[in-house]
Amino acid sequence: MDREGRRFLGIDAGSVTTKIVLSSEDGGIIFEDYLRNEGGPIWALQEGFRHLSARGHLDGIRLVGATGSGRELARVIAGADVVKNEISSHARAASFLFPDVGTLIDIGGQDSKIVFFRDGYPTGFNMNTVCAAGTGSFLDHQAARLAIPIEQFGEWALRSRSPARIAGRCGVFAESDLIHKQQMGYRKEDLIAGLCNALATNYVTNVARGQKVRPRVVFQGGVAANAGIRRALEERLGLPVTVPPHFKVMGAWGAALLAIEKWMEDPGAETRFWGVARIASFAARSRGFGCRDCANSCEIQEILIDGRPVARWGSRCGKWEDLARESPAELTEASSTC
User: Fold this and answer.
1) What kind and span of H or E run contains 138?
2) What does the CA dihedral 205, 209, 210, 216 come to, rounded to 10 degrees?
């Protein structure tokens, strides 16, 4: 048991999945959860807190960290105290677990990242957000096309003895090439292995971009579950690739570690955290409306908890940041209960 039962929470609100980690003061993982958003990021966040509540983890949370593309949403819904980008959070978890990390490969649902380290500290990074080829959502789509559960994708790839050659520089071309070779009668394992090889080449070319990849190479993110991608990366890089035991939740773990660091700097810091039970049970939704006050016609996004607005985005002039201001009676509404 950590000292005085202090707990720290990390949330990684991604485009496809939501990850939650509950950490002890020494950085150890007490609880972790990995949920697919299924089109409802608010629902996924609340479901994660319901799981946390069901396991009896209700008290002792000192500070909360949030990261991911939906980190601002997580800040509002959970009351996060530390909000950091994905690079910072993933890098923090990797260096905590592997002080000798030289390069971090992170492939998520919508983008791919590489972070370079020296002496345990990140020194630079690249991202690929232009093309979906190689990301988790792209692989999910191809797995559905081939009628193979994404969890078995890597296993199928390792069966191949003659991988198909798939054009992997572009997601559209890769899919077209895959369909063409599928129609020609290629075996599924050869198609999958070829896809893994193509996507590994895409990553090294378009994300690493010729920069030196130093050992230890750590591979995290949901795609790290794919043994075929891991093997293909090892072949392209000529280096062993380490997949950490908590590879799916490293971003959330890093956010929790950053929250611990803030606590260490200011042990008296007060949290904005709503509380596990409260988050698990309140009614939250988002809705959008168009502001007609001027020619800008800004699209405002509003988050409501129990019917009360708690955050708004999208106003160029900032007038809608005043939460006391009433929303228009007639909304051009794109409402979601998420």
Assistant:
1) helix 136-145
2) -90
Q: What is the pLDDT of residues 52-100, one digit of tens each?
A: 999 999 999 999 999 998 999 999 999 999 999 999 999 999 999 999 9
Residue 107 and residue 236 in one domain: yes
pLDDT digits (tens, 9 = 90+) for 13-59: 988 899 999 999 999 999 999 999 987 899 999 999 999 999 999 99
Spatial separation of the C-alpha atoms in residues 327 and 189, rounded to whole Å: 54
Q: Which residues contact 317 (CB under 8 A, 6 or more apart)?
A: 294, 296, 298
Q: Has residue 94 been placed in a domain? A: no
Q: Are residues 199 and 238 in the same domain?
A: yes
104-118, 201-215, 323-337: least confidently modelled range: 323-337
What share of the chain has pLDDT > 70, as a percent?
92
**Residue 269 sits in a domain of what CATH number?**
3.30.420.40
Based on the domain organization, do 72 and 31 belong to the same domain?
yes
Which is it for strands 103-107 and 217-220: parallel, antiparallel or unpaired?
A: parallel
Q: Which residues are CB-contacts of 152 (< 8 A; sequence separation ≥ 6)?
A: none
Strand order in the sheet with 17-24: 29-36, 17-24, 7-13, 61-67, 82-83
Q: Which of 27-31, 85-89, 197-201, 217-221 has the lowest mean pLDDT?
A: 197-201
Structural domain containing residue 315: 283-338
Counting the structural domains of the chain, the total is 3
Who wins on pLDDT, 41 or 168?
41
Closest CA to 108 of 232, 227, 12, 202: 12
Contact 301, 289 (CB under 8 A): no
- Cα–Cα distance measured from residue 203 to residue 219, given in angstroms and rounded to the nearest whole number: 12
For residue 183, give every residue at least 6 positions away whose Cβ sits within 8 Å of its Cβ, in sequence order, or none: none
pTM recorded for the entire structure: 0.88
